[in-house]
Amino acid sequence: MELEGVVDLHLHTAPDVRQRSVDDLGVARAAVERRMAGVLLKNHLLPTADRAALVRLHLPGAPIYGGVVLNASVGGLNPQAVEAAVAFGGRAVWLPTYSAGNHLRHEHGAPDARGSDDGIAMLDARGHISAALGAVLEVVAARDLLLCTGHISAAEVMAVVPAARALGVRRILVQHCEHSVTGLSLDQQRTLAAQGAFLERVFAQPADGRYTRNAPANAAAIRALSAESTVVASDLGQPENPTWPDGLAEYMTELAGAGIGEPELDVMCRRNPALLLGLDG
After folding, report:
1. pLDDT tens digits, residue range 226-264?
2. Are 281 and 37 a contacting pair, CB within 8 Å?
3. How far is the C-alpha of 59 from the C-alpha of 167, rounded, in Å?
4. How crowded is residue 188: how many other Cβ atoms within 10 Å of its Cβ?
5. Looking at the domain assignment, is residue 86 inside a domain?
6. Given CB 3.0 to 4.6 Å as the disulfide criterion, which of 13, 139, 172, 235 pairs with 197?
């Protein structure tokens, strides 16, 4: 499958604390060679905005972008971390992943998400977004950044998306819709799409130490909810999975084989992610 004009909003690269199958410069060279329109680098522990800036310095014109994941390693829900990422040219902010209370409960059985020892919660005791999250969303709105929901729970996503929209956040990507760590039903996804959020469909999800490919489930969800609200992203970089960018092309081919047409793939792989990353002109 051709990758010309494709934008991948979810790629893990080296250097990282865990092994990755591709590094920042390798991604940049491949993106230029394949004539891709954009790649968004993600790291769970440290910002990628400065790394992307360094890549563009050494390979002018490379469509490589970064941001910051608001895990404990950068101070959690920290508006200053967001502003710093913006200063380096960052375009995306991820809500907590490994530090999310929901992630810790799902992966490690942490009993509660409200205390700092048990992860970062998005909601207060009344079920409203926390003051710390509100401060972050205000910066995201003011800087017109892409907000990605990370590994927060379905209940948190359902509260955060309308609150973010009310604060002026225009670009929202709901991540890992098909993963049990998020557990969003199709009805919930339909509601989120009606609120203006986009729904991410990635190549595979970890299960029992292995990765299960998502193409059949994702194709069914796309048919149920339409391509208009969908973004196809790779979430690759793990040695256990196919190496990027061939893995991304393979994923697109699998979706086509599952009955997703070229016009729909163009919307999900090019138009929608370009819009979210601010590459649409």
Report:
1. 999 999 999 999 999 999 999 999 999 999 999 999 999
2. no
3. 37
4. 17
5. yes
6. 172
